[in-house]
Amino acid sequence: MSGTADITRIETTERLSRVVKHGGLVYLSGITAAEGGADIGSQTRKVLEKMDAFLAMGGTDKSRLLRVEIWLRDVERDVAGMNEVWNAWTPKGGAPARACGESRLAGPAVLVEMIATAAA
Amino acid sequence: MSGTADITRIETTERLSRVVKHGGLVYLSGITAAEGGADIGSQTRKVLEKMDAFLAMGGTDKSRLLRVEIWLRDVERDVAGMNEVWNAWTPKGGAPARACGESRLAGPAVLVEMIATAAA
Amino acid sequence: MSGTADITRIETTERLSRVVKHGGLVYLSGITAAEGGADIGSQTRKVLEKMDAFLAMGGTDKSRLLRVEIWLRDVERDVAGMNEVWNAWTPKGGAPARACGESRLAGPAVLVEMIATAAA
User: Fold this and answer.
1) Domains of chain B listed by start with CATH number
2) A64-109 pLDDT, tens per residue?
3) Are C61 and C77 within 8 A, CB to CB?
4) How far apart are the C-alpha atoms of C89 and C114, rounded to whole Å?
5) Smallest CA–CA separation between B31 and chain C, in Å?
6) pLDDT, tens digit, for every residue of B26-53?
7) Which of C48, C87, C98, C102 to mutate to test the interface with A (most CBs of A within 10 A)?
8) What share of chain B is helix, strand, coil (3-state, %, to 5)?
9) ipTM of this predicted complex?
């Protein structure tokens, strides 16, 4: 196929699109939220708020997440705090596949980044 | 689409599903195996055993892997040991796309995590 | 489905396939380029050259990228230099979803690794 008429991009800059739709799938860019607060609970809540909004832009919602990859600046310190917010947000019986590891992220204030793939 | 009747989730907890099927693809959660032993060879073997089992739950097998992302706690020390077990396990002529990097994982005993996507 | 006739693998070794095609999607292995030079600009340029070549082998091109995950050896030092090359390479109005974090990679000389998924 030539052209990209079958690909929908949302909130596109020169660097990335926040949401890309193709073939029944919705791909989100990595979401961070240093502005959400200085602790893991606040940042996780803000990341998930933003994820809800980006999923809605893609015409889907958290009940249709397929996999989420989660990166924490300090996994041993913050995994429990992140999980507490995550578990409360995740639809009962509808949790996606998930992976979690540690990575230094775009800046020292960024404690968590999430990369999500959903069904459209 | 509303509802999630087109998504199959297997071994679902409040946090994650071990296996998610949708649209001809099978998404696995990150697999670790600290219980597999204290060295990279043992843990890699155990991770791959578990991957075989999760792929089977999803109705597929390692010959249909599309991409695997591998995270090692110490990539320079352990990449050779991981590769030795990986290469023996991978179907001849049927290796998936792969990426490998370093990440501190859920606990200090966890040496390797693998995130797999397969065709159903 | 048994067999793997619906999966196309390109540049397959015992460890990985550089390109895997299935169901309208093209999955690339992680691309690094220590041979590209000792600075982030040179390595990023070389990684993107190789990505162009692998996408072409898969019958697609950068205008059809869906998501790219980028790992830097030193994210705070190198993210600006990587972005400069990335932004110039990315099709105007056609940037994929993207995520970026830090990971030690296969060797100390490797400054950047990119994992790409594209529409066929």
Assistant:
1) 8-119 (3.30.1330.40)
2) 999 999 999 999 999 999 999 999 999 999 999 999 999 988 888 9
3) no
4) 14
5) 19
6) 999 999 999 999 999 999 999 999 999 9
7) C98
8) 30, 30, 35
9) 0.95
Q: In 10 A of CB B76, how many CB atoms? A: 13
pTM of the model: 0.96
Tokens 């105007």 sit on residue = C92
Residue C65 clears pLDDT 50, i.e. is over it: yes
- Which of B1, B4, B104 lies nearest to residue A75, judging by beta carbons? B104
* Whether B30 and A76 lie within 8 Å, measured CB to CB: no
Contacts of B117 in chain C (CB under 8 A): 27
Q: Which residues pair with A29 in a beta bridge?
A: none
* Tokens 């390797």, located at residue: B112
Judge residue A36's burial from the number of C-beta atoms within 10 Å of its C-beta, 0-12 exposed, 13-18 middle, 19 or more buried. Answer: buried
Among C64, C66, C79, beta carbon nearest to A27: C66
